Amino acid sequence: MLKNTQRLRLLCGAAQNLQKFQPHLNRVATSLRFEQIRGKKDDSNSLSSLFIPVPVQPTPDDINVGAELTGTLNKADLLKVLNKFYQKREIKQLLSDNGLDQYLQHQAYVSFRRYCLEAQTLPVDLHVVISDILQGAGNATDIFPYFLRHAKQMFPHLECMDDLRKISDLRTPANWYPEARGMTRKIVFHAGPTNSGKTYHALERFMTAKSGVYCGPLKLLANEVFNKSNTRGTPCDLITGEERNYADPLGNASSHVSCTVEMTSVNTSYEVAVIDEIQMIRDIGRGWAWTRALLGICAEEIHLCGEPGAIDLIRQLCLTTGEDVEIRNYKRLTELKIEDSAIGSLDKVEPGDCIVCFSKNDIYSVSRGIEASGKEVAVIYGGLPPNTKLAQAAKFNDVDNSCKILVATDAIGMGLNLSIRRVIFYSLIKPTINEKGEKEMDTISVSSALQIAGRAGRYGTQWEQGSVTTFKPEDLHTLKTLLASPTEPITQAGLHPTAEQIELYAYHLPNSSLSNLMDIFVNLSTVDDSLYFMCNIEDFKFLADMIQHVPLPLRARYVFCCAPINKKMPFVCTMFLKFTRQYSKNERVTFDWLCRNIGWPVQTPKTIIDLVHLEAVFDVLDLYLWLSYRFMDLFGDAQLVRDMQKELDAVIQQGVVQITRLLRNSETGVSSGGTPDEDEFSLNSNKQNYLRERKGSQFGRGKLTERLLAQGLITPNMLQELKKEWKDNTSDSNDFGLDPTKKTRRKRKTK
């Protein structure tokens, strides 16, 4: 047994703990007595629900000191005391004063009650206080300090909310770039419509400067400036997320750099910087990159190129940096005429026409319709590799080529020099992503309409006078209204949490996932919404959730989640997951490993689905190259992957040239030479083994199915096909190797 002096010391400690909170308890109790609280609803705060509770485990102890001091507690009586404690109004008010809203209070109480009732050994001070209450020597409110201690262990953010709010205070992003603020920068805004020469004048200054950086929205544009600059005799390097190309054969850095805007350095000093398409500062996903470039580039002169609608916002942003803006306005160099009638039929398409569609299905159907009349078409859409786009553009631009018609998405709006006589809008409805990350179908914006229509009649081409119309007569009035409207004023610039900010959050909230940290950051962030908005983080969170179970350091996890991935492509997402697993095991992603996992070498596409799959394979190779510049030790075969891309690019080009035949094959059920569906990239290597292992059993059940699904070796779609094949093949075991589509055709002939 412990001595009485030890017991007295413990009781004194507990009393001191209670004494610290007693004035608050008295004050709250008094205020509640004089105020009527009429059932006010304290709805669960959406922010509080983001904080994941940390399980509080009792500390194992061989000796139950509390029981030795005061005896064993009766659990039934203990439950009554806890319920009485939690029902007191003054306790709820005091908890609220300490940062626990109704939602957190309930979560904490459920955990604290379970802890007290299920723990074999309670902390000595808590045991003694509860014992005194049960014996009538204390009040239920005496439990408060111990309950609060438990709540803070469950929700660590209660101890550091002020720090978290400071970290996510984004009201003055200009102050994030002290080197730029230490300079006197000259800001020149070249404002004008498409084909007005604004970018030309900015690039002239770039090429004559001692040093410079060009920041473009697309790899194609960065590559074009890289080639043009070197051709003009100004050595220039190319830097994109997936590529580093130096003008110097020895790999020494040049004084000029052409890069995609996300890759812009804010630590290097330049004489001149050009930021192209500055109106994209309002882009819901990528706007943060333009904001970062504008506020952070260390250049004596910064030349901005873009729409007049961005002028007021740029002026406001430059007020926060203490810089003046010089505006240079430009007018269109060639005439653009709006036709009085829609074409109404694909038979009326003429040489030099570009039909603009906003979906792949429309691209396919329009291409097929035009080629059915004996006319050859070039096809350009966002999913194609850059070289394939350039090849299709070159074919269309070549006056000696028989291809005189272009079918394209709004991918032609930037980055390609095209000799278009007339732009025809096949539709004016386009899928868009709203502020909440939700997909919507809406009429294209004034900005998009002007950008796309402006591609007709380009200065210096064979068509110096352009025209624009619609396919459907009912769309023509809407198009005229759009083109007659001034560009929408841009009012906000995008922001995004940095890796450093998220690392600070993780320090304070070590038990939270990356996706959860991003959610908390965005919800706690303070933004000057008269100038800025928080960019959409749904794609980032999608990747973070996908790889949450993979053990990775936080910085590496953040980098992986910044990868440019189309989450609609299951094959690309699956390979992304495999890349992260290899990294987590510290195993190199070799050329041989990559070939095995993507089914290399590939075959010429026979159907549209084959072509779509090859585009996904190209994206996987792009992802490898992107990772190779961030994790060079594990993704070390970049040059071999580039060679693969060149080969794959040529195969995809063959497919695009024969796109009508691919569509026809898809409809007639011609067997695919490669993988039949983009979900089924691993089907060829796994199907036969799977069929043999399941011989004599029923498909879709058992541990093998579950294991293959869990490992990502088959998908639910693949499982359905395998079930169907199993039913077809059970009559003859020799039929396992047959192509099911061929088998079906053979049956048709016997009818």
TrEMBL record:
The keyword Mitochondrion applies. Residues 725-751 are annotated as: Disordered. CDD domains: DEXQc_Suv3, SF2_C_suv3. Residues 341-506 form the Helicase C-terminal domain. It holds the Pfam family Suv3_N. Its main location: mitochondrion. GO terms for molecular function: helicase activity. Its cofactor is Mn(2+); Mg(2+). It is found in: Mitochondrion. This is RNA helicase. Transmembrane segments: none annotated. PROSITE patterns: HELICASE_CTER (PS51194). It comes from Nicrophorus vespilloides (Boreal carrion beetle). It comes from the Eukaryota. It catalyses: ATP + H2O = ADP + phosphate + H(+). Belongs to the helicase family. Its EC number is 3.6.4.13. The keyword Transit peptide applies.
